[in-house]
Amino acid sequence: MEFSSKLLEKAVNEMAQLPGIGKRTALRLVLHLLKQPKERTSFLSQALTTMREEVQYCSSCHNISDTALCAICANPKREHQLVCVVEDIRDVMAIENTGQFRGIYHVLGGKISPIDGVGPSQLNISSLVEKVKLGGVEEIIFALSSTMEGDTTNFYIYKQIADSGILTSTIARGISVGDELEYADEVTLGRSIVQRVPFEKSLRG
Ligand SMILES: [Zn+2]
């Protein structure tokens, strides 16, 4: 791609670093910004910079938050003894949208995937095991997507907490294997949380 302006080229190249954005799309977005009032670009770049600088991760559940403790963990009305284990914030948002879950979350930040070089130590697993050991947790609900990586991660965590005597369950799936949680419709996802099954049972199935 030949550019008549180095400034334009630089902006397009930066934009094209984003996933799913090729150079053509990047050029279209940048040209769009050029047509808009200058403030639009300021608002956009400021929102991104501030978000990157100031965003925090909840010290309890690792959810993305504006405060040290996220709004869900800080809410006394939530059932803190009920912990739903998810991969990332998109899953928290999807489950919150169902309005069917009153517990709290634990965000792993990914799934165990040896192919991608992701081992248990790179995920927020030890803090979950610690939380269980400290007491106060009555049930862990696994809500990872039912892929091989999701199953491996569930089983790894399950082994770590199996002797604690707490309940472990997995969300009942009305969704086919490999479907990512965030794409499941609200009704199906809500039902799958309410109708969760004991984790041991899911192993035999
Ligand atoms: Zn939290």
At CATH's second level, what is the architecture of the largest domain? 3-Layer(aba) Sandwich
Helicity range: 40-55%
Structural class: alpha/beta
Query: What does the average pLDDT come to?
Result: 91
**Spatial strand arrangement across the major sheet:** 4-3-5-6-7
Bound molecules: zinc ion
Which H/E pattern describes the elements? HHHEEEHEHEHEHEH
Distance between the termini: 53 Å
Low-pLDDT regions: none
| Number of E-type strands | 7
Main beta sheet: 5 strands, mixed
C-alpha geometry: elongated
CATH topology name of the largest domain, in short, is Dna Topoisomerase Vi A Subunit, Chain: A, domain 2
The overall number of domains is 2
Question: How many helical stretches?
Answer: 8
Give the C-level CATH assignment of the largest domain: Alpha Beta
Beta strand %? 5-15%
Rg over CA atoms: 21 Å
InterPro entries: DNA_Rcmb_RecR, Rcmb_RecR, Rcmb_RecR_Znf, TOPRIM_dom, TOPRIM_RecR
Keywords: DNA damage, DNA recombination, DNA repair, Metal-binding, Zinc, Zinc-finger
Domain Toprim: 81-176
Protein name: Recombination protein RecR
Question: What topology does this entry show?
Answer:
Elements: H1 6-15, H2 23-35, H3 38-54, E1 56-57, E2 64-65, E3 79-86, H4 89-98, E4 103-107, H5 126-134, E5 139-142, H6 148-161, E6 167-170, H7 186-194, E7 197-198, H8 199-204
Parallel strand pairs: 3-4, 3-5, 5-6
Antiparallel strand pairs: 1-2, 6-7
Helix pairs in contact: 1-2, 4-7
Bound molecules: zinc ion (ZN).
